[in-house]
Write a structure and sequence with these properties.
The protein is of the alpha+beta class. Helix content is about 25%, strand content about 15%. It comes from Ligilactobacillus apodemi DSM 16634 = JCM 16172.
Amino acid sequence: MKEGLTMTDCIFCKIISGEIPSTTVYEDDQVKAFLDITQVTPGHTLVVPKKHVVDIFEYDEELAQAVFSRIPKIARALKNFDPRVKGVNIVNNNGEVAYQSVFHSHIHLLPRYTKEDGFKMTFTDNSKDYDSQALQAIATKISEQIKD
């Protein structure tokens, strides 16, 4: 948990408990999905586990299954709620350096209408800096860290 933050301070825990109102699009015993107040694009939805976890690094297999198994049906609902929706971005930020601003794990589902609808993602192409040997060295180091 972010330094100094407790579950009683967590805005998403307060939304889940009903202490803070939200506009719910889906809810069951494990997950709540509600409209993000920023509405980057119309229908911008947050999917949160009801169990307080800071980020993806705190998920166990059971929680991951509960949360991620709900994503496709919520994404389909977003794609189908407005005929102008052409796609959906699924974004999950983990850690402050990765732009996480609320330290209760959450997944953004952003309906996409056009390339100029207010949401942008850009990636730097560094492929010239990595030959197959360098890529393999990185892959090996990552693979060695995967634990069951």
